[in-house]
Amino acid sequence: MKLADYQRFVQQVTSPESNDIGIFIDRLTELSENEHDVNIPLMITAAKGLSAESGEYSEIVKKMIFQGKPLTADNIFHMKRELGDIIWYWVNACRALKLDPEDVILENMEKLRERYPGGEFDTFFSENRKDNDL
Prior knowledge:
single chain; 134 residues; mainly alpha; 7 helices; extended
């Protein structure tokens, strides 16, 4: 197999929205006309920001674990700042979806209570989830 063959394959299995700016814009317009009043540009900003900032936090941890970087007050401060950026984008995601951040936290707690009926972490329940346990 040649790289050019793989490139053609990748193009064929990539969505039209990813391959064509016109189709992409049409999809964004379609999504913006939603019955839930979701702010699509803010939702996208939050999604990209959460991914990027989580990556920055992970990069610090990776360097400490795999590259010998020390666990110092400066690194903890750097991680704190990245966590602040994560929460900023998280709140924007809540804003985009018209969700109360406290309700999101409560929903997460309820999900975890249902997943771990004994109130403690259990590998069995972590690996064997009930239907609709996302």
